[in-house]
Amino acid sequence: MLPFYENALALVKKAAKTGNFPQDLMTILEEPQSIHSVNIPVRMDNGSLRIFRGFRVQHNNAAGPYKGGIRYHPEVNMNEVKALALLMTMKCAVVNIPLGGGKGGIEVDSRKLSKKELEAMTRGYTRMLAPVIGPDKDIPAPDVYTDSTVMSWIYDEYSRVVGKDSPGVVTGKPIEIGGSLGRASATAQGGVYVLLELVKKLGKNPKDMTVAVQGFGNAGSFVAKLLYKEGFKIVAVSDSKGGMACLSGIDPVKAHTCKIDKQSVMECEIASEMFHVHGGADCRKVSNSELLTLPCDILVLSALENQVTSANAESIQAKIVLELANGPTNMEGDAILERRGILVLPDILANAGGVTVSYFEWVQNMKGEKWSEEAVAAKLKGKMVEAMGEVWSVSEQYKVGLRQAALISALRRLAPMVLGT
Ligand code: GLU
């Protein structure tokens, strides 16, 4: 199995070949423009000093300032951050926003840090990267295990360092200090718009479709709730510890309340309130890998990378895969899904709603505007529906799956900007 970056790059190269793009384009996109690695000293609550390793990869800024989230996870590494930055360049191009691709991360289990330690680490990371980020240079945002509070610390620390109030340095901020309405649910909402377009094209009715959701965090909890509202039946949800599957359906609002309360859906009682139909009689606990191969119509991947691989792609029973996580399907897994006729709504399209509303937030900050929730939702829908239409027509033109089509669509937009032609 290829490492994440080499895998992501191989997928882009495959699309570049199909679309017959000039070699120079791939020569430039093959490596990030710059890579920053920092060692952040943090005074822990017990008085000891710990060093945390952090990264920021700036992949390409031909389309605009680098843009991408910051991830806090114990397994963060340079290869992963490079892959995620490359995917950001492609993602911003698919939805046609004037931003480039970047990504950051700190190797940390943030759940084991106190709030004070987390804040000190975030502020230290921001100080060390302050010379290379900024509203016109590189704009971070939330990702796995980072949220609006973390963004507020970055905003504050960066503004202190440069001596100027700079809300545009980061997106995904709390609403009161310049965040955008609709940002928290944007990744999921964007995915739902794209999925609904596909469901329409297939002539199906959401009420007849079942959904399993892997990952119940920033994106997964929102998507389960939004899909439930649209009439889909949620038959399984999981988080990092494992999940629950219920044939008669799960109420995601109740399930999420229980998850917040107990830390994991695994800790919820099978007969608890969260299973609203038969009082839990038809529910059972499932492992994360079991969830992926459950019978369902739609599998939503909203956890981490490398979940669907040659080890399990043959056993996936869903007919549609919605990738809200970045890189959840590797190259071999992707080829198997494509051969089996399973429709994959790829990450760079399906989860682009997050960065799209980040872009809206940044525009509001730069212009000193505040848009209503309805205005944000309408603009987001417009962007997602347009991108989906374009990707769909590229897939018909080249007779390729939606992942290759999305990459070709991104490369088409990037080529003149990157090559300066
Ligand atoms: N972390 C999100 C992503 O992977 C959002 C990035 C952003 O808003 O800049 O797309």
List of distinct ligands in this structure: glutamic acid
Poorly predicted residue ranges? none
Shape: globular
Number of distinct beta strands: 12
Main CATH class of the largest domain:
Alpha Beta
The CATH topology of the largest domain is given as Rossmann fold
Give the number of helices: 14
Indicate the proportion of strand residues: 15-25%
| CATH superfamily (homologous) name of the largest domain | NAD(P)-binding Rossmann-like Domain
How much is the average pLDDT? 96
**Major pleated sheet:** 7 strands, mixed
Q: Compute the number of structural domains.
A: 2
Looking at the overall shape, the CATH architecture of the largest domain is 3-Layer(aba) Sandwich
Helix content: 40-55%
**Termini Cα gap:** 37 Å
Radius of gyration, rounded? 21 Å
Describe the protein's architecture and organization.
By secondary structure, the chain is of the alpha/beta class. It has 2 domains: 149 residues, 3-Layer(aba) Sandwich (Rossmann fold), CATH 3.40.50.10860; 165 residues, 3-Layer(aba) Sandwich (Rossmann fold). 43% of the residues lie in helices and 18% in strands. Strands 9-8-7-6-10-11-12 form a 7-stranded mixed beta sheet, with helices on both faces. Helix 3 links the parallel strand 3 and strand 4. Helix 1 packs across helix 14, helix 4 crosses helix 5 and helix 12 packs across helix 13. The protein is globular, with a radius of gyration of 21 Å.
